[in-house]
Predict the 3D structure of the following.
Amino acid sequence: MRSLDQLVTLAPTGIAAPGYDYLHGRGVPADRLDALIPEFDLRFDEQERRVVFPVRAGGQEIGYAARAIDANQRKRWRDHPFEGALRSTVYQADRVLAGGDTLFIVEGPFDALMVTSAIPPEGDSVATALFGSLPTEAQLALVVSAVPLFRMVYMMLDANVFGRCRRLALYVAQAAGVPNVGAINIGFEYRDPGATRFEELQRLVAFASASWAPEIHWMWERRLVVGGAKGA
C-alpha cells in the first residue's frame, strides 16, 4: 500500500470518481459528501480501488484505513502502515477531544462518516470509530477522558454485538465517574450505522441528540419519531 501523500483527494470526477460514486451510492448525499471530503481528508487509491480514511491524533499522522469499493474483494478493510496500526487512537481523535453535544462511538470509519453526514451541518455532535468492536486500553482511556466534554456519549456498535455495546457503555461510565454514557441498539433491520438508510439515520441521530436515556432501542423508539409508520 502506498503512503498517504501518493493518494489523490476524493472527487466526483477524474481517477477518484469511483470512490466518490461508491460513498454516494452507499447513501451519503452529494452535498454532505462534498463538505466532508476536506473535513475527513478523504482520499482514493485508484490502484487498489479503495476509499482511504486518514487517521491522525495530536496533529500527527498515524496511518489510514482503506475500504475496498469492489464487492469481490476478499479483505474489505486494510490498515496502513500495518494491520492494527490504528488501534492506539480513535478516528478523528482531535475533534473528539474538542468536545461537543453528543458523541457517537461506532466501529468503523465508514460508520463514522455516515453518522457525521446525518448530523445537521450546524450541529455540534461528533462521531468517532474504534476500528472494531474490541477497543484497546489506549482507546478506552481516550474515550473516558472525552466523556466530560460532551452532554451525552453513546456507544453505537453493530447490531450483532449489542451486549458488548452495553458492557462498554457501563465500563466507560464507571471509569469516567459520570452517568452520561449510554448504548444504542440500532436493531436488526440495519446491521450497522453504515448500512442504515440515510433518512433513518438522520432520525436516529436527532433522537439520540435530544436524549438522556442510558439505552436507546431504536426498533422501539422509532415509533415515537415516525408515528408507527411501518418501514419508515
